[in-house]
RNA-directed DNA polymerase
Amino acid sequence: MADNRNIRQELYDRIRESSKDEVVLEEMKRMGFWAKDENGPTIPELLIKKEVELNRELNKLYEEKRKYQNREAVLKEMRLKRMAESRLKREENKKKKELAHLERAEAWKKKKDTAIIYLGEGVSVGLNNTDNNLAALQKHNLPVFNNENELANAIGIPLKELRFLSFNRKVSTVSHYRKFYIPKKSGGKRLISAPMPRLKQVQYWLLENIFNKIAVHPAVHGFALHRSIISNAQPHVGKSVVVNIDVKDFFPSIHYKRVKGLLQQLGFAEKIAVIMALLCTEAVTEEVEIDGRNYFVQKGNRVLPQGAPTSPAITNILCYKLDKRLQGLATQTQCSFTRYADDITFSFNNETTNAQQLVWRIKKVLADEGFTVHPDKVRIMRKGACQEVTGVVVNEKLGISRKKLRQFRAVLHQLKTKDAAELKWGHGNLASAVTGYANFVKMIKPVQGAALQNTIVTLLQTNRLQYPLAVTSSKKNIQTPPAQNNDPSAKKDDDKPWWNVV
C-alpha cells in the first residue's frame, strides 16, 4: 500500500515538473506501447516536447508577473538576495583577511629568524641601512659583513643570541654585566661592570678582529701592542717638571652614539655599526625589587662600561684626535707627552714653559673633546720631589718608590711569623696583591723582582700565603678569554683586567 502511494506521488511530481502528455509518452515508451523510430522523434513527440517547453516558459513569465504585481514582495526578495550576497562576500573577505594575516605572521616569523629588524627603543632607526663603505674597510683591513647573519657566523654564535646580547631594554629581568666595586688608590670606590661570559666572548672577538687592527697614536701606551707602563714612563725620565692629569669618568664619557659613529667611520654599514656599538656599551641601570623579583631599570644613556675588554681599545681609537692635539701642544711647548688610558703626562726641561699655563691649555683641549679633568688629580712634580708616572719613579732613571719597596719587604718578612689575616697589602686577597706587586717590581728591576717572587713562592709552599678559591679551583671553573695572540713576544697589558694596572 505504501509502495503504491510512493509511485503515485512520483508520477504527480513528474507531471508537475513537465506535463501530463510528456509523462504518458515516456511511460508508453517504457512499457512498449509506443514504438521507437530509428529515424528520430516523430511529429507527435516533437509537439509534446515543444508544448512542455512553452508551458515552462509561460509559467516562469506568470511567476515574474505575479512578483512584480506585489511590490513589497519584490523589494523583500531583493533585500534578502542582497543580504545573502553581502553575507557571502563578508565571509569570503574574512577568510581572505585571515589567510593574509597568517601569511604576514609567517613572513614576520621567518624574517625575525633570519634578520634583526628591531633592537629596542631609540637605537633601531639605522637598522635599514646595510650599505658598507668598502674602501674604508679595505683601508683598515677590516672584515666585510653584508648582513647580521654574516656577523653572527663570524663570531660563532646563533643570530638569536646576537639579538639577545645586543637588545636595548628599558626594563629587564636580566643583566649582561656583573657589577662590583673596587677601592681606588686615592680613596673611594670604582664601579666595575664585568661582562658575563657569553658577552665577554663576543667582546673579545670584536677586540681581536676589529679594534686591535686600528692603529693608535704613538703617544698612547695603555692597552696597545708592545707598550706598557714602562714605555709610558720612559719619555719622562730626568725631566725638570712632570705634569700628570687624570681624566674624570674616562670610559663613561664615551656614549653609544660616539661608538656607533666610529664604527661607521671605519666603513661598517649603519646596521652592523648599531649592533657592534650595542655589544660594546652598557646602559646606566638601577636594580629594583618588585614582588620578590629583581628588575634592571635603565636610567641613563648607554656608555662604555668600565670592565669590558673592548672599552680601552675603543677609547684609544676615539681619542686619536685628542692625542694629536695634545701632541701638537707638547711640540709647541717643547714637552714630552704620553697617555696611558685616563692618565695624561707632560714633562719638560724648558725653563720658559709655565706649568700652570700648560695645565690650563691641557684642560681646554680636553674640554673641547668632551672630557673633564679630575679636580683632585692634577699633579705638578718638580725635580726636587719624587716624580711618578703610572706608579714608576722617573727622577733620574726608571725606579720604584723606595719607601713603598721597604714596606713591601716588611710585609713579606712579617709573613714568616704572622698570620696572613693580620697583614694588609693593597686590596683584596693578600697573596694576589703581593704577587702582583712583585711582578710589577720585576718589570722595572728584574733582579729584585725575581728575588721577591722566589720569596712569595716559598711562602705559598709553606702555606703562609694562600690564593682565593677562585684562583686555585680547577680549570673548568675558570672563565678564560679566547686566545688573543699566539706570539709570546706580543704580550699586551690587556691580558689582565684593565683596572689592575699596577
